[in-house]
Amino acid sequence: MIVTTKKLFEAAYGKYAIGAYNINNLEQTIGLFRGNLRSQAPFIIQISKGARAYSDKVFLEGLIRSADEVFPEAIFAVHLDHGDEETAMDCIESGFYSSVMIDASHEDFETNIAITRRVVDAAHARGIVVEAELGQLGGVEEHVQVAEADAKLTDPKQAREFVERTGCDSLAVAIGTSHGAFKFSGTQSLHFDVLADIQKELPGFPLVLHGTSSVPQDEVARINAAGGKLEGAKGVDASQFKQAAKLGVTKINIDTDGRLVWTRVHREVFRDHPEVFDLRNPGKIFIEEYAKYIAEKNAYLGSAGQLPAVRALLG
């Protein structure tokens, strides 16, 4: 069942965070649904601008519609991740997405507000909810590239003004995470003091964290053992997710980790079985490994086991 993120956030606020997972193909889609149903978790499917260009938006929409039919017990939202204004408007017009993100965080404050307001007005007219972003994460994710020197944390006072003037339904905030597999070095971590101040300015308002893949070190080690070169990759400690949820974070984005699982499975299969040429062999392994990973991640988020309560809330 496809619902809006607004409904999911109402159920989760202050208690747990909902996993927002990016997909690009059939195998990820199947593994994502299986993992969430095994762990009985509501979830958010994210489609990025890059994913829409990779396989054409119609293919991805078809996969999700099919999965909704094959897994009727699932409750999820369909969300555009990191959309520019043109892409956000296209998704709104399509009538398929229940949620869109407009990311104008690279613009100055007033321009960010103006662009976000236009998207909000168009989306709300069609019953679609909007995520916006204030502050900038460093790192690289598809078309989003921000040098660490240019990254900046979200200003709590600005956050309140931004939400009031744009009318957005949730806000992605920058509190020290970054995109990609190389998030931290040394003892860097999340700025929970900043997050707490933002929550004080926006009590009860859903907050979002991007760049929160954990970059599991066992995955990195196995990739490197199979010929990869990811020395120094380090992510967010998953044990911090529940603390973030208590401070108003209702959505946590996870993309890099899924790519790591995909890379590890395929590198190991082709290393250990060089005679293999059937693409379904590693595909079957990946589906199972990804489903297992999703279920484990939902336990950290606190969303595991919440599906019955969400279903009851939706009536």
UniProtKB/TrEMBL annotation:
PROSITE patterns: ALDOLASE_CLASS_II_2
Top enzyme category: lyase
Note on how the cofactor is bound: Binds 2 Zn(2+) ions per subunit. One is catalytic and the other provides a structural contribution.
A GO term for molecular function: fructose-bisphosphate aldolase activity
TM stretches of this protein: none
Active site: D81 (proton donor)
InterPro entries named among the record's database cross-references: Aldolase_TIM, Class_II_FBP_aldolase, FBA_II
Gene3D superfamilies xref list: Aldolase class I (3.20.20.70)
Keyword flag NADP: no
Cofactor: Zn(2+)
EC number: 4.1.2.13
UniProt binding sites for dihydroxyacetone phosphate: G180, G211, T212, S213, N253, I254, D255, T256
Binding site for Zn(2+) 2: D103, E133
Keywords from the named record: Lyase, Metal-binding, Zinc
Single Gene Ontology BP annotation: carbohydrate metabolic process
Binding site for Zn(2+) 1: H82, H179, H210
Organism superkingdom: Bacteria
Protein name stated in the entry: Fructose-bisphosphate aldolase
